[in-house]
Specification:
There is one protein chain. This protein is mainly α. Helix content is about 75%, strand content about 0%. It is built from eleven helices and no strands. The protein is rod-shaped and about 90 Å long. The termini are far apart.
Length: about 210
């Protein structure tokens, strides 16, 4: 790939000497200044390969209008987003893909990030966080059903913790997903039994 950092420094030095009136080298260094953007561009590619994304952006910016340097910045942010997504750094990936604008399928990749984030949070039993992430995923894959799944699982977890009111709220949010409606009736039945055992027959009757 070449030592492009040294090349850039050399070309800069050459361009300074070339600008001086006493240069008498026959003009062989006349193009030194013009080579600087090319060196920046080449070194940016090397940085991108090394996943040094920050430096890659910096060098493509320094390359100015050389070739497609400005659009290559989008390449860098896209690659950075892909790498961050692979590491589970979903929020960082969303930002990176967002910086590319309408580049390639960046919009879809953002939705994918939210979906993956939802799955990760659901595994961590963060039902509210997962539901929020799936909501942000919009129409990506089965995100809408995954929201209902979050609420359904949240309802079951609430029953296990004896939080019946919260369970009903969660199952209601799940709508007709799976047997959520039947689960609501089961919770009311459990509440009624509790009231009967406590001698609160009127409350139990209302729940039945």
């Amino acid at each position: 790939a070449g030592d492009y950092e040294s090349a850039i420094a050399a070309y800069k030095a050459l361009s300074v000497f070339n600008s001086m009136s006493f240069v008498t080298d026959g003009g062989k260094n006349w193009a030194a200044k013009e080579h600087i953007p090319a060196a920046y561009y080449a070194w940016a590619d090397v940085c991108l390969e090394k996943r040094d994304f920050k430096s890659a952006v910096e060098y493509f910016e320094s390359a100015g209008n050389y070739l497609d340097a400005s659009s290559r910045i989008d390449d860098v942010y896209y690659a950075q987003g892909e790498y961050q997504l692979s590491l589970g750094r979903f929020d960082d990936a969303i930002k990176s893909f967002g910086w590319t604008g309408k580049y390639k399928d960046a919009g879809t990749r953002i939705l994918m990030c939210y979906y993956a984030k939802g799955e990760a949070l659901l595994q961590e039993v963060d039902y509210d966080g997962a539901a929020s992430a799936f909501k942000s995923a919009g129409n990506y894959s089965d995100a809408a059903d995954r929201i209902k799944d979050c609420r359904y699982e949240q309802g079951k977890a609430c029953i296990a913790e004896g939080e019946n009111d919260a369970a009903i709220t969660a199952f209601n949010a799940a709508g007709k997903y799976k047997d959520a409606e039947t689960m609501i009736l089961s919770v009311y039945y459990l509440q009624a039994q509790t009231e009967m055992e406590a001698g609160n027959f009127k409350k139990a009757e209302d729940l039945f």
